[in-house]
Amino acid sequence: MITMPLAEVAAVTGGHLAGPDAGAVVDGDVVADSRAAGPGSLFAAFAGARADGHDHVPAALAAGAAGALVSAPGAVLAAGAEPGRLVVVPDVAAALGALARHVLAALRAARPTDPPRVVAVTGSVGKTTTKDLLARLLAPLGPLIAPPGSFNNEIGLPLTVLRADHATTTLVLEMGADHVGNLAYLTSVAPPDVAVVLVVGRAHLGEFGGIENVARAKGELVSGLLPGGTAVLNADDPRVAVMGALAPARVVTFGRGERPADVRATGVRLDDAGHPTFTLTAPAGSAEVTLALVGEHHVTNALAAAAAALDLGVRLPAVAAALAGAGPASPHRMAVTDRDDGVRVVDDAYNANPDSVRAALAALTTLGAGRRRVAVLGEMLELGDAADAEHRAAGAAAARAADVVLAVAAAPLAAGARAAAAHGTEVREAGDVDDAADQLAGLLRAGDVVLVKGSNGTGLWRLADRLTAPRPAVPR
User: Most buried of 81, 133, 232, 324, CB within 10 angstroms?
Assistant: First the structure.
């Protein structure tokens, strides 16, 4: 973060110091994990369901943190914390957002002719992969900030923005939403110069209350653009394409060639390892691209990243080369591991919704050609009233794509698989991750391809970690 006296942090966040100004200065990172605190850092103490960050303020200060954002100073003061190093605010998350908003505005004001650019990505699927691709494509333009994994909410996004300093040229931000209004808030913290919208899908249907509300929420990213900003929109998704009407200035479109688009992919084909190859066509020309990523669905993510990068001045040959070298940068997203015992694990366990499950099953079909295919699927969370029907449909799709379907704590999914099972498809159920691991230990054999896919809250990523962990050597 840019250097800032702790007293100024208090003023910016609408808080106050719990005691006389100690003269502390923040010139390090802003962190929400006390273990990451260091000299000059600022620790944000969140009171969560499992742990209260206030309990860790003394440790953060002892590690050298200049101060801490707190909403409940009593216990912290009782533990002996120096009052002048505590910024007391009503809401730590809101204070973090206010601080990030202030810092970004200050950085832009300091370089009025060459301000840091914000490139923001949203969509029901593909946000993190596209963000990672953009970070790779835009790196040649100068010092770049991008979040690890999916720091895309009211806590993660400000923490990412606050990593910027006077040398930063680009911030690539992922913006997620599970309610209407989420993206309006996030764009108020970090108004984007470029807004990338991938797809309006059926994620978080239970929270949104319907697909039209999902579209409305995603459109908030475009509405939040800076004057003169550019909307990069998926021409193949009608709900995204119409968001061009919300853009304050330029619109750049991308697509698979089914509808007119500025940046297109044609001649898409997959190799035996599931890597897509296509012709990337843009106003500047065309280039052959072979992605390092696995799965045809990543073509859309690559097109979105390419369209934004080309608009920001990256040349087409550099875009094609960067896409060819960009493998998975965040964990549990179509990561393919070939084990020593001949089992191939496809780890797509970070999250799941109806659209991403179908995309993962399509990849399993390709990667498992001529091999036994095992689909390990967990529950898709936050689908509301649509949950039962969507799980049954996903189970039916799994039965068509796999030889073995293992449903983990997802009875409707198993029922859908059994109803659609044909040609000897085997359907199993597991009560939890441990049960699934035990069953797979006796089920998997050399040559199998196993897909692990489920919502993050189900913990199936732990199963993927176990399946891909280094295996102990067998004594001779």
Answer: 232
Between CA 401 and CA 363 the distance in angstroms is: 9
Can you tell me the distance from the alpha carbon of 437 to that of 458, in angstroms, rounded to the nearest whole number?
14
In this prediction, residue 208 carries a pLDDT of 58
Q: Which of 93, 70, 84, 100 is nearest to 24 (CA)?
A: 84
Looking at residue 366, its pLDDT comes to: 87
* pLDDT value of position 329: 66
* CB count in 10 Å sphere of residue 19: 15
DSSP string for 46-85: -B-SS-BGGGGHHHHHHTT-SEEEES-HHHHHHTT--GGG
Q: List the strands of the sheet with 16-17, edge to edge.
A: 16-17, 86-88, 67-70, 42-44, 30-31
Per-residue 3-state assignment (H helix, E strand, C coil) for 237-284 = CHHHHHHHHHCCCEEEEEECCCCCCCEEEEEEEECCCCCEEEEEEECC
Q: What are the phi and psi torsion angles at 41 (to 5°)?
A: -80, 170
Are 453 and 380 in contact by the 8 Å Cβ rule? The answer is: no
Q: Give the pLDDT confidence score for residue 202 in this predicted structure.
A: 66
10-residue mean pLDDT series, the chain (476 residues) = 96 97 95 95 91 94 97 92 96 97 98 96 92 96 90 94 97 91 96 97 63 89 97 96 95 90 95 91 95 91 97 96 82 87 92 88 90 95 86 94 94 92 86 96 95 92 92 55
CB contact set of 331 (below 8 Å; sequence gap of 6+)? 149, 347, 350, 461
CA gap 395, 402 in Å, rounded = 10
What's the pTM?
0.84
Name, in order, each residue with C-beta under 8 angstroms of 441's C-beta and a sequence gap of 6 or more: none
> Any residues with CB less than 8 A from the CB of 199 and at least 6 apart, and which?
123, 124, 125, 126, 234, 237, 240, 300, 355
Name residue, tokens 């199963």: 463
Structure tokens at 19: 């005691």
- The predicted pLDDT at position 247 comes to 96
Q: For residue 423, what pLDDT is reported?
A: 67
Q: Which of 349, 280, 116, 237 is nearest to 218 (CA)?
A: 237
- Residue 428: which H helix or E strand, with range? strand 426-430
Q: What is the pLDDT of residue 245?
A: 96
Please, are residues 433 and 358 in contact by the beta-carbon 8 Å criterion?
A: no
Pairing of strands 344-347, 250-255: unpaired
